[in-house]
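Summary for the steering committee. One of the milestones for this cycle was to obtain a three-dimensional model of the protein with iron/sulfur cluster bound, which we needed before selecting residues for the alanine scan. The sequence and ligand used are listed below.
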Amino acid sequence: MTTPVTQCLIRLHEEHHSLEDYQGGVPRWCNGCGDNAILTAVQRICRDEDLSPEHTVFVSGIGCSSRFPHYMSTYGFHGIHGRAFPIAEGVKMARPDLHVFVNTGDGDCCSIGAAHWIHAVRYNMDITVLLHDNYVYGLTKKQASPTSPKGLKSNTTPRGTDLEALNPLTVTLGVQNASFVAQAVDWIPEVLYEIVAAAYRHRGFSFVRVIQRCPEFLPKMLEPWLQDPSKTLLLTHEDGLQLSPDLERIYKNRREHDPLDIDRAREIASSDDVIPVGILYRNPAVPCYEELRGAGQARPAERIRAGLEAELDKFTVWPDEAVEEQAVA
Ligand code: SF4
């Protein structure tokens, strides 16, 4: 017979999760790929926030980053191209009690999925979104994406892209009901962790663009930012990002930024000389769609069946009419 102390220890062990509880398959990303850093940060956050794996869902579209759900030992849905947002919204509407994450890439989100992205921001459902932005389609072997910088030579633009890149931060900040917008980079893991953790804790649609390296197809593109810390602007605030003394010694280009100030957030998001890193905007007062619609309220099976039958009846060819029609013919 177990003593109360032993029972307590058993319960603690059962209730508190370790990192291994979230680790799924062995990642197949290339060596040095920034996706690995994002996966590590997310698994640590799941452990530290003690998310129950059976109440956590990762939804993705198509692309290198969209293999993410395979590497988490939680529920997951590897969706179709550009459709991660509506799938995640469906999950949240049916089960608002679940922790829902979306992993999407710059092609998946900003090209084929752009319409879903805009409306997902407006609906402001309580979903944590990680945009893995490597400026290129990696899975289909180096094709230009909407965030590719102007002039980038790729397999679809051998003479260089003609258009200015789309800026995912300014787009998101321009949508009605935006409630959380942040930017992180894969090569400062401590800050990546803090920003994604803040996004998870935000009640609403939290959008984090993570600039990630693709050493396979753009090995040198982010080198200037890795070599020169002054090219990264750290946004700090008592209600935002706070840096450790070690990071303060390295990253001296810092600015106090209140995440409630959307005009300043838009101005910072437009910077093209530095990469801003931190929480640009956070407004916890924006209502969540699933709360406005009373999502997740149980509907009796009979009511669901009656509704389905009423819909299907609209397409019924009634036997008597069919017989009469045959007789006339
Ligand atoms: Fe990562 Fe690029 Fe390899 Fe894709 S192609 S796994 S983005 S390094």
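Key point for the committee: Residues 29-30, 33, 35, 64, 134, 138, 214-217 surround iron/sulfur cluster (CB under 6 Å).
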